[in-house]
Design goal:
Layout lengths: L9 E4 L3 E8 L1 H10 L12 E3 L3 H8 L9 E8 H10 L1 E2 L10 H10 L2 E9 L5 E11 L2 H9 L1 E6 L1 H10 L9 E2 L6 H4 L4
């Protein structure tokens, strides 16, 4: 078995789309699934975090049991949009060797509408694994593009989350595989 790189995006994707996951309150999730778009109650004025790792979201939402995270949505967006967000992203914290200086990182952070955090990936029992999973935070214009321009469809994956919580059957997991990062993004985001 090949060793998993320390930082790697693993996602469910095809030639044109990538699926990211988010947890929401029922009133937002119900409207989003019913209408196939984000409702007016979706907050465009704050950073929204998307995760291409289903298991990491299960950890974050405690299997869709966390307050305000009772519903799990699979948000299918264009790969072009996902790649644009990665190309715009800056690490959420300063890393020597990735950034020329702390001042350069702070300048990049102020200009960017996207943040990246690398958090420990999780197994089916939500224990941390030795490799990291991407979280991508979007703000400003990138949130608008995510919710309108890049959106393909919204899937309700809450029943899947509950079944996985009950069974821990790995065969039920969404099929995630290494995602090819846009040129230059891997080194800039500390994955190279």
């Amino acid at each position: 078995m090949d060793e998993v790189p320390k930082k790697q995006i693993r996602a469910r994707y095809d030639d044109g789309t990538v699926t990211v996951y988010q947890a929401f309150r029922p009133e937002i999730a119900d409207a989003a699934v019913a209408d196939g778009r984000w409702p007016d109650t979706f907050r465009h004025d704050r950073m929204t975090w998307i995760k291409p790792s289903f298991r990491w979201l299960m950890h974050r939402s405690d299997w869709a049991r966390g307050e305000g995270q009772e519903r799990i949505l699979g948000v299918v967006i264009t790969r072009q949009g996902f790649d644009a967000a990665l190309e715009a992203a800056v690490l959420s914290s300063y890393r020597p060797g990735v950034h020329a200086s702390k001042a350069d990182w702070q300048r990049e952070l102020r200009r960017s509408g996207a943040r990246v955090q690398w958090d420990p990936e999780r197994d089916l029992h939500l224990r941390p694994l030795p490799h990291r999973s991407l979280q991508l935070g979007l703000s400003g214009e990138l949130v608008r593009r995510y919710t309108a321009e890049w959106l393909v469809r919204i899937e309700d994956l809450t029943p899947l989350a509950r079944e996985l919580h009950a069974t821990r059957d790995a065969a039920l997991l969404p099929p995630e595989r290494p995602y090819p990062m846009p040129p230059g993004a891997a080194a800039r985001l500390g994955a190279g």
